[in-house]
């Protein structure tokens, strides 16, 4: 018996949203095959329960993988043209565009981010991502190598197969699109595990997958606890590839499980402790804007958050005054408030984690420039918090916080700041601000990160690759590079002229 959907009323807008509560397998919402366990979803702005949904068990993952395998072998995989895949992906993008406001309000309820940000940035970018990869679907081709006398050889870029995709809670719709779009373009099938904290929009998007006309089993959605569903996908013998965005600790576990099972392909987009550098020649007002965005966008819940800010000593006093003004001008509130630029952090666990780091910064002797005081009342709100007088050994400088907490230090020379910036086990993002073109080239080359921003920060494009170095992950998302994560290259040697003598 299928679990009944629930109707959620958004009190701020009066909108009624019907949300499926079952597991999405073979284009249907179904109950667990062997478990009564549920996941309670919570509104982080009010701390109230939104609804409960079915939590997938390891046996449910088996059912979803089997559905994905059947689709791969029959209606998808090598059995569908690139033109048809492109048409379906574009149709899905159209439906997301049609329902953008409803999806944004549901995202805000479950994740906390402002409706405006969810709609105009996350969902707007996700629609573009789908359309970008729809354009690639009929252009995934190999190469040819010819020996005119005896042989013709060519390569095929085959779909890798059934893909387990495990996405985080900080950008639930955006990360869904980043994973789904290239996989579908390459003709892979998917078992999607959204975060147990933010599963509602992934379930709602599953309805659009049916409406768009995708065959059953091509995309399956199995909300589950990470230790159950994520572990089952990572170690599954019939999953060909696993893609994960989240913490470095979990990424290690996934890679180990993949290696110990069937040595499936793995791509990981993991944590960061990104350096952000302001040189004395920079446009200070613009640099302050980008530095504030770098740590405060999405309430700091961003793997590329510019959480270590280095400011040249000659402009330090002027800049930190400017930065404090920028940070304090930002409105952090319920995401349904019109003026909101940021919302609460996603959960009580995350709230407690961020505050433990703020208390650690105080205890280790860092000086508070702004913030660092708890708000009264309900909601997991953390106001912008900036520490100065930090030392490289402090916990707030070394570890990823994933909240609106900035460590600010001064530096004297270019060589000094490059060493400070690269003094981390992470390597996801980095940024610098300077009007000296030679300096921009030198420093961007020297920074050890998968993405370096020059005179901006945190801006990504669907046609530009994104990913990390060191313990920030392996593989790339976005751009043509993401297609490599979902294809397997086969070389075909066709002899038409060489005769083999025997014995040789």
From TrEMBL:
Gene3D superfamilies in the cross-refs: Aldehyde Dehydrogenase, Chain A, domain 1, Aldehyde Dehydrogenase, Chain A, domain 2
Q: Which GO terms describe its molecular function?
A: aldehyde dehydrogenase [NAD(P)+] activity
- Keyword hit for Oxidoreductase: yes
Swiss-Prot/TrEMBL keywords? Oxidoreductase
Name the catalytic site residues.
269
Q: State whether keyword Oxidoreductase applies.
A: yes
All copies of domain Aldehyde dehydrogenase, residue ranges? 35-492
Stored PROSITE patterns? ALDEHYDE_DEHYDR_CYS, ALDEHYDE_DEHYDR_GLU
Family stated for the protein in its record? Belongs to the aldehyde dehydrogenase family.
Q: Which PANTHER family match?
A: ALDEHYDE DEHYDROGENASE-RELATED (PTHR11699)
The name this protein goes by in its record:
Aldehyde dehydrogenase domain-containing protein
Task: Give the organism, scientific name.
Answer: Jaapia argillacea MUCL 33604
């Amino acid at each position: 018996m299928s679990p009944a959907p629930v109707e959620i009323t958004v009190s701020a807008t009066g909108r009624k949203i019907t949300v499926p509560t079952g597991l999405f397998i073979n284009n249907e919402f179904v109950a667990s095959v062997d478990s009564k366990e549920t996941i309670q979803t919570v509104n982080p702005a009010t701390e109230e329960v939104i609804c409960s949904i079915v939590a997938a068990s390891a046996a449910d993952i088996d059912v979803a993988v089997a559905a994905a395998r059947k689709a791969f072998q029959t209606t998808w995989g090598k059995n569908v043209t690139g033109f048809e895949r492109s048409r379906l992906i574009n149709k899905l993008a159209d439906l997301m565009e049609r329902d953008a406001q409803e999806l944004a309000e549901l995202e805000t309820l479950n994740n906390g981010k402002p409706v405006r940000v969810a709609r105009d940035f996350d969902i707007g970018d996700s629609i573009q991502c789908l359309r970008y990869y729809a354009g690639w679907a009929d252009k995934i081709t190999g190469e040819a190598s010819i020996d005119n006398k005896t042989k013709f050889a060519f390569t095929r870029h085959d779909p890798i197969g059934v893909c387990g995709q495990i996405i985080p809670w900080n950008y639930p719709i955006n990360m869904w699109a980043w994973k789904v779009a290239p996989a579908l373009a390459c003709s892979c099938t998917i078992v999607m595990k959204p975060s147990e904290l933010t599963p509602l929009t992934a379930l709602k998007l599953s309805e659009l997958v049916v409406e768009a006309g995708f065959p059953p089993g091509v995309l399956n959605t199995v909300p589950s606890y990470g230790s159950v569903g994520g572990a089952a996908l990572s170690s599954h013998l019939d999953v060909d590839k696993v893609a994960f965005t989240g913490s470095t600790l979990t990424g290690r576990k996934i890679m180990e499980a993949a290696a110990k099972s069937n040595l499936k392909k793995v791509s990981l987009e993991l944590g960061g402790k990104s350096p952000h550098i302001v040189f004395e020649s920079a446009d200070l007002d613009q640099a302050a804007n980008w530095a504030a965005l770098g740590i405060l966008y999405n309430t700091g819940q961003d793997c590329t958050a510019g959480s270590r800010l280095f400011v040249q000593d000659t402009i330090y006093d002027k800049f930190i005054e400017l930065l404090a003004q920028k940070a304090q001008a930002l409105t952090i509130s319920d995401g349904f408030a019109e003026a909101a630029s940021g919302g609460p952090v996603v959960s009580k666990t995350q709230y407690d984690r961020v505050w433990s780091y703020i208390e650690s910064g105080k205890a280790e002797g860092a000086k508070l420039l702004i913030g660092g005081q708890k708000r009264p009342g309900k909601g997991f709100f953390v106001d912008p918090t900036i520490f100065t007088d930090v030392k490289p050994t402090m916990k707030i400088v070394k570890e990823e916080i994933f909240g609106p907490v900035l460590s600010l230090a001064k530096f004297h020379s270019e060589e000094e700041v490059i060493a400070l910036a690269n003094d981390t086990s992470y390597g996801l993002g980095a940024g610098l601000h300077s009007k000296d073109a030679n300096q921009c080239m030198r420093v961007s080359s020297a920074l050890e990160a998968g993405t370096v921003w020059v005179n901006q920060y945190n801006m990504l494009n669907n046609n530009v690759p994104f990913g990390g170095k060191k313990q920030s992950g392996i593989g790339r998302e976005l751009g043509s590079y993401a297609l490599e994560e979902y294809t397997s290259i086969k070389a075909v040697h066709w002899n038409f002229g060489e005769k083999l003598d025997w014995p040789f």
